[in-house]
Amino acid sequence: MRSVDDLEVAGRTVLVRADLNVPLDSSGDGPPVITDDKRIQASVPTIRDLIGRGAKVVVMAHLGRPKGGVNPALSLRPAATRLSELLGQPVGFPDDASPDGGGIAGAAAQAAVAATPLGGVVLLENLRFEAAETSKDDAERAVFAKQLAALAGEGGSYVGDGFGAVHRKHASVYDLPQLMPHAAGGLVLAEVSVLRRLTDDLARPYVVVLGGAKVSDKLGVIANLLDKVDRLLIGGGMAYTFLKAQGYEVGHSLLEADQLDVVSGFLAEAQKRGVDLVLPVDIVAATGFSADAEHIVVPAEEIPADREGLDIGPQTRTLFASKLADARTVFWNGPMGVFEFDAFAAGTKALATALTKVDGLTVVGGGDSAAAVRKLGFEESDFGHVSTGGGASLEYLEGKTLPGLQVLED
Question: pTM for the complete prediction?
Fold first, then answer.
């Protein structure tokens, strides 16, 4: 992939596809408040580099899933405000991205771009307000991509720097870069460099830790990793389907009954290949899904029928830490419990602590895992790499072709 350094940008307009899909708190009376701005922070270096070289930068991003319609609650205006603060300069923002205003790349966007001087920045409204952005119809996406490309004018170029979206075949990710000179931004290059270390010439023992709610979300990555990893540690909500597949009672714990045969196959395949597939040996079992639910620690095979597992227990925390102690490469995706509730965050915190002690490459695979380490008081520098894209990281490790990377490589 070409880098930004390979593009001629001075005196020209550059379209930057960033990932500003940040969490918002809309519970107050005022405008929504960004609760975690790490993705916005991650977009700053590439934008700052481009404006420093005399380019006009038009940032494009999405927020949430507005399903192809304008939703004021999912406006990127808070992101524009925060981006302005981080850059230390104004960031233009179109006043009207509604269909009446011509849409995302319509008259309001055109005026905002035209009014911005070289060295300036404009952030377009939420791309997903436009149904064509996520359309499965190639022709619909192509029309929207051409509208976006027109904002750059003659001599304009494209920079793909939204790693969290590169697994999506969307207009701004896949179709747009094919219309103009393009390169990968620094964030995408850094993400790909790290993930390649997990697939090419990695140091062993190689340990993968998977958690989160659903095993079905990680079927592909498990299947692809069973012939690559030395150890696979399973926690979080997905662990209960594994425990059930071994014949254990899991009470009201999260269970995907339709995946039991698949999981049984994974267990058998891991044994066949000599992979150390490690499941929880004890569980924090609660009377319900709430922050103040009464809870006890029970053996993993003895979860009471009227309780649900919300975290891994203390013996499992010690066990998992021991399995990480001599690791040289670790990838972690998915919390070990309901870390949003303090009473059920200890397992995730213990795992993160163990990762900070690994003598080798540790990769936190974005999404809830990245949110968890920040909420629990860790710094990103405590780990080798904290990814900005959970879904993209997983699909990369599944061996899938990611559309947003494919076009940049081409």
Answer: 0.90
Catalytic residue among 12, 17, 39, 375: 39
Pick the catalytic residue from 160, 164, 367, 404.
367
| 391 among known catalytic residues | yes
Q: Considering 160, 164, 313, 391, which one is annotated as catalytic? A: 391
Active site residue 12: no
Whether 214 is catalytic is yes
Active site residue 272: no
Q: How far is CA 351 from CA 80, 236, 316, 318, 323, in A?
A: 35, 11, 10, 9, 11
Q: What is the pLDDT along the chain (410 residues), one digit of tens a residue?
A: 999 999 999 999 999 999 999 999 888 788 889 999 999 999 999 999 999 999 999 999 999 999 888 898 999 999 999 999 999 999 999 987 777 777 899 999 999 999 999 999 999 999 999 999 999 999 999 999 999 999 999 999 999 999 999 999 999 999 999 999 999 999 999 999 999 988 887 899 999 999 998 889 899 899 999 999 999 999 999 999 999 999 999 999 999 999 999 999 999 999 999 999 999 999 999 999 999 999 999 999 999 999 999 999 999 999 999 999 999 999 999 999 999 999 999 999 999 999 999 999 999 987 888 889 989 999 989 999 999 888 899 898 888 899 999 999 96
∠ CA 250-252-255, nearest 5°, is 65
